[in-house]
Amino acid sequence: MKSKKNIILQGPPGTGKTWLARRLGWVLCNERQSDRITLLQFHPSMSYEDFVRGFRPGSDGKLTLIDGPLLTAAQNARQDCEGDYVVVIEEINRGNPAQIFGEMLTLLEHDKRDPENALNLAYPRDGEGPFHLPSSLLHLIGTMNVADRSLALVDMALRRRFAFFDLEPEYNDAWREFVIERGYDESVVDRIAVRMTRLNEVIEADRTSARTTASVIRTSLRDPSPRRARTSRSAGTSG
């Protein structure tokens, strides 16, 4: 995170993507519920004007140029110079990333956050020169639902600018302890683990099943693989 600056947590629903994204923000900001964390969600009608900068009608009936959450966080990070700032984007694949980010797709890269790689914004203010993102103090954390058809909108231009981490549901001992501590009967929890394991085996044996379908109910009582970020939170958790 410190080197790449931008990451995406991807996985099926219920794997704790939002939960983890916010806590990563707390760690980077060294503060719980920090006001240096900006939370937003992409959606199909999201635009560059919403996220970066665009014109909005003012109280006087005239259009006013307003900075979006990304530019606001960038300016705050540049003025602060001491604390880290984080932008958490939920459902980053629900919008059209290429349209929403615009020239920021280039400026997001960790090795292009300097004056030499600055670019003119689509809506510059009077007298404003080329813009670049702060070199070290601004981080982007996105979440992505791998079972969503809008994955097709996530092109390689975006993928190569973010580091991707997979989160998968894991019905292991940690999950078992977590659920039992919240009042569930041990025998019921054990039956759930066994049945979900069997169901997962059936789905994995079916060559016609989509990978995302199998991932939603993936279970394992073995040690988690070090190549994947796994979560022991219950399947009913949001994110």
List keywords for this structure.
disordered C terminus; alpha/beta; 239 residues; elongated; 32% helix; 6-stranded parallel sheet; 19% strand; two-stranded antiparallel sheet
Main-sheet strand order equals 2-5-6-1-7-8
Q: What is the number of beta strands? A: 8
Main sheet characteristics: 6 strands, parallel
Termini gap: 20 Å
C-alpha geometry: elongated
Count of helix runs: 9
User: Structural class of the helices, strands and pairings?
Assistant: alpha/beta
Order of helices and strands: EHEHEEHEHHEHEHHHE
What portion of residues belong to β-strands? 15-25%
Please tell me how large the radius of gyration is: 21 Å
Average pLDDT number:
82
Q: Helix fraction? A: 25-40%
In terms of per-residue confidence, which ranges show pLDDT below 50 for 5 or more consecutive residues?
210-228, 230-239
